[in-house]
Amino acid sequence: MKKETEQKVDIDYADRVVPEEGKKGFVTMFMIMLGFTFFSASMWAGQQLAAGLDFWGFLKSLLFGGVILGLYTGLLGYVGAKTGMSMDLLAQRAFGEKGSYLSSAMISFTQIGWFGVGIAMFAIPVAGELFGDSKTAMWALVVVAGVCMTASAYFGIDSLTVISYIAVPLVAVLGTVAMIMAVRQGNGTIVDQFAVSSGSLTVFGGAGLVVGSFVSGGTATPNFTRFAKDAKTGTIATVVAFFIGNSLMFFFGAVSSIFVGGNDIFEVMVRLNLFYLAVLVLGLNIWTTNDNALYTAGLGLANIFHQRKKPMVLLSGIIGTVASVWLYYNFCGWLNILNCTLPPVGMILVLAYFMNKEDFETDQPKLKTIDWFAVAGVILGAIVANLLHWGIASINGMVVAAVCYCVGQAVNKRK
């Protein structure tokens, strides 16, 4: 009886496949995934694109990079929705029971890091505008934001859904209105403004920025699409949401760069004398990504330490909140390096599913302890992604990981 009660309370199914009663329809999945892509750091990439490309080059990079990112996240979304498994459960089958600790640690570490950076991205500018850079006010905002965002991740997928339904329309509408207002107040059209860019970036390089901006977060896609009512719903919701959400963030960043010399729609709205709406948009924009990031970190740590998800979410939230300001000023560069380590994980999860479907169709598979070829694929893929300065880093890493995994599969079949 106790076990049945626990299963009813655990709406997140951290250690099991999501049952039919836990599934959700297209609109809910679309809102969750769209909120996930509302990532303020993507605006930084938008700023870089605007500085290095003209308007048509910007659009080409957006489309090219969006197709690559959509294909990657769409495949992961399909696998998550088809199996009903989280990224960590998929990793157990792809990397082995203990081998999955590597991918879980990597995703947890990066998501806690971005969670902390996100909190500081809210607290620092708001404290600067409202309280004259008061350190006390900044830390008060850090604590309030950390508590709120941790709470929504703690209460699970239903809480994430509520936040997404509130935040997504507000951020999309208010941010777009502010962007249009800024363009109308500028000198000439948006095409004219883009034309003054330095031209220091190629379309291919711009596409690399588009892909790299959210490919690490995209690796966690199965954690959310596993709740989709079917594979079609999960896949379409993911691809459409990622393209729309990321494109919107890039446009926000680009317009901010062009019209106010910044990298965030917050700065545009402040310049337009919409300060309180700016705070609302900034806070909600970060919240929808941060609670998803912390949710993912909680699932990852739960897999490593064999604990329930909720305590791991609390631990992750405390670490990210306490370290947020330090992370913001010292760790963004390292986080960008770590971003290149996660696409190889996603590639191996996809290959493992399509090459060994029988392992994913049973509730009690015979798990390896460690699949060394999969582990090697992630390590070598991460090294190549960070050291090879040619092409798109994340794709380079995925190719190396795919080769290592396929070699491993061929060797294992001969045995």
Characteristics:
single chain; 415 residues; mainly alpha; 21 helices; disordered N terminus
Structural commentary:
There is one protein chain. This protein is mainly alpha-helical. It is 79% helix and 0% strand. It has 21 helices and no strands. The chain has helices at 2-9, 26-37, 40-52, 55-83, 87-95, 100-131, 135-154, 157-185, 190-194, 203-218, 222-225, 231-260, 265-271, 275-305, 309-322, 324-330, 332-339, 343-355, 357-360, 372-387, 393-414. Helix 2 (26-37) packs across helix 8. The model is unreliable at 1-9 (pLDDT under 50).
Unreliably modeled segments: 1-9
Strand content: under 5%
Gyration radius, in Å: 21 Å
Shape: globular
Q: Structural class, from secondary structure content?
A: mainly alpha
Order of helices and strands: HHHHHHHHHHHHHHHHHHHHH
Largest β-sheet summary: none
Calculate the terminal CA-CA distance, rounded to whole Å.
45 Å
- What value does the average pLDDT take? 90
In quaternary terms, these chains amount to: single chain
Number of strands: 0
Number of helices: 21
Helical amount = over 70%
Write a concise synopsis of the structure shown.
This protein has 415 residues and is mainly alpha-helical. It has helices spanning 2-9, 26-37, 40-52, 55-83, 87-95, 100-131, 135-154, 157-185, 190-194, 203-218, 222-225, 231-260, 265-271, 275-305, 309-322, 324-330, 332-339, 343-355, 357-360, 372-387, 393-414.
Give the topology.
Elements: H1 2-9, H2 26-37, H3 40-52, H4 55-83, H5 87-95, H6 100-131, H7 135-154, H8 157-185, H9 190-194, H10 203-218, H11 222-225, H12 231-260, H13 265-271, H14 275-305, H15 309-322, H16 324-330, H17 332-339, H18 343-355, H19 357-360, H20 372-387, H21 393-414
Helix pairs in contact: 2-8, 2-12, 2-14, 3-10, 3-12, 4-10, 4-12, 4-18, 5-6, 5-18, 6-7, 6-14, 6-15, 6-16, 6-17, 7-14, 7-15, 8-12, 8-14, 12-13, 13-14, 14-15, 18-20, 18-21, 20-21
